[in-house]
Amino acid sequence: MAYGDNVDPKNRVVAIVLVGLLTAVLGYGLVNGLNISIVKKIAEKLDVVDVEEPPPPEEPPPPPPPDNKLPPPPPVVTPPSPIPPPVTTNTVQSVPEPPRVAPPPVYTPPAPPAPPPAPDMSAPGKPKGNPARWATNDDYPARAMREEREGTTGFRVTYDASGKPTGCDVTASSGHADLDAETCKLVLRRARFDPGKGRDGSPQGGSYSNRIRWQIPR
Q: pLDDT tens digit string along 47-64?
């Protein structure tokens, strides 16, 4: 229990009154120039009662100083990759092939009828007149007649689109050069032809083959 709780309330009031009177007297003495000694004597006669105040309550101990150690940093968390990892599966799923749809048929217009073929007007050329008259006995070489040389010469004559001979070749010799040479000479001079015709009827040249027999007249 505190000491202040044992003081009589009446004594406390008396003490307060006495203190107030003492204060008033001191103030009056200071104002009126009273002797300080008088004030001391009056003060000694006063029965001052000391009132002890209870001691203040004990303050709680201060909190311990904060620890300066910082907490460990949080662990670094790597964010997940935005691209998901490929999923590897050992099972191969067969995807059914969609049914094949046949394309619609393409309309092809029928080809126009082919024009009728042109009439074939081709025709071979032929000699004009009798080829036997191209060489006669009157054309027999005199020297060959004196030497009584005879024979047959085969020839081939070519002609142009007008029917005129353009060349002569001996295809079979009579055995006598003069008789062969006289044969082509007479053919080129006397032979004439009706030229042949192409498919369209245009004239065209050609060739003709025959032979002349040289025989001394009896």
A: 444 545 666 667 767 766
